[in-house]
Predict the 3D structure of the following.
Amino acid sequence: MQPHAVKVPVTASISIECEFWSEDDGWTGYCQRLSISVHGNNFEEAKKHMEATLQAQIESILQSRSGGHAAA
């Protein structure tokens, strides 16, 4: 008898070091490893933009490596 396999989505959180700095019109964030730059009106907004952009970039990389098939 063969074992029954179940496919389930698993979310893995990873830390990526990013730099943030204040500018005249808000805050800018930069992730050197993935060449991602974001902007926000305040630090928290810039950090949230970075988190969302990193998530989208990582998902895009994984989709391209799996031939366009993303895990649901």
